[in-house]
Amino acid sequence: xxxxxxxxxxxxxxxxxxxxxxxxxxxxxxxxxxxxxxxxxxxxxxxxxxxxxxxxxxxxxxxxxxxxxxxxxxxxxxxxxxxxxxxxxxxxxxxxxxxxxxxxxxxxxxxxxxxxxxxxxxxxxxxxxxxxxxxxxxxxxxxxxxxxxxxxxxxxxxxxxxxxxxxxxxxxxxxxxxxxxxxxxxxxxxxxxxxxxxxxxxxxxxxxxxxxxxxxxxxxxxxxxxxxxxxxxxxxxxxxxxxxxxxxxxxxxxxxxxxxxxxxxxxxxxxxxxxxxxx
Length: 279
Known about the structure:
Elements: E1 7-11, E2 16-17, E3 20-22, E4 27-41, E5 46-48, E6 51-63, E7 69-71, E8 74-86, E9 91-93, E10 120-132, E11 137-139, E12 142-145, E13 149-154, E14 163-165, E15 168-171, E16 175-180, E17 190-193, E18 197-205, E19 209-211, E20 214-216, E21 223-230, E22 237-242, E23 245-250, E24 255-258
Parallel strand pairs: 1-4, 2-4, 3-5, 4-6, 5-7, 6-8, 7-9, 8-10, 9-11, 10-12, 10-13, 11-14, 12-15, 13-16, 15-17, 18-24
Antiparallel strand pairs: 16-21, 18-21, 19-20, 19-22, 22-23
């Protein structure tokens, strides 16, 4: 494949089981043709050091080691279905490594290599469903969502969350639901939205979550941290139902916080986050 940033289209002709590495200066568009690429074990399905776009088809992974998708470059998810169950991160967007980029590794690189906020994840279409025991989507750069549907959950009881970003999460379209058992202490970036977004810290709950026409039943129990953003919502008052609890929230065309949630990650130290509405 070319290594001069020339765009290359990779078309899947059948279901396959393998892990793929995209090297630096490669620009790959994956047309999966509604077939499935899957992998389980220590290595990711895709380790990207260049630029990739996923436009259709299915990516499935049950990962027990490295993230299912490791992105050290730029990734644009514009279509297809991504289904991930992971013991660590599900999708990781990190800065470019200083080591060789021609082969996949069998373990997650040291955390010091992830602290440069260069990784970028763009979601413009498709559906992502991911459950992890770590940071489900962990991006050490920016996350830009303009469309598509994202359901992410983290069962971690510590500082790991369903949506962790060092820089900015920007949402302008689609539907995003992120559910965590932790309080988002490791979610240290800031959030920006041109559509209604609710960031809520609630009492430990289990069962269905409903906000207007948005309804979702997490697979994890005992969640305390909810992020919902959707172009299906309006700047008006809603009842937020989570498990057996109900709260009144008034959304804006931007970020609204509830409980001790903060717009810059984690919880405020006491009191209600800016724009929050207690029940």
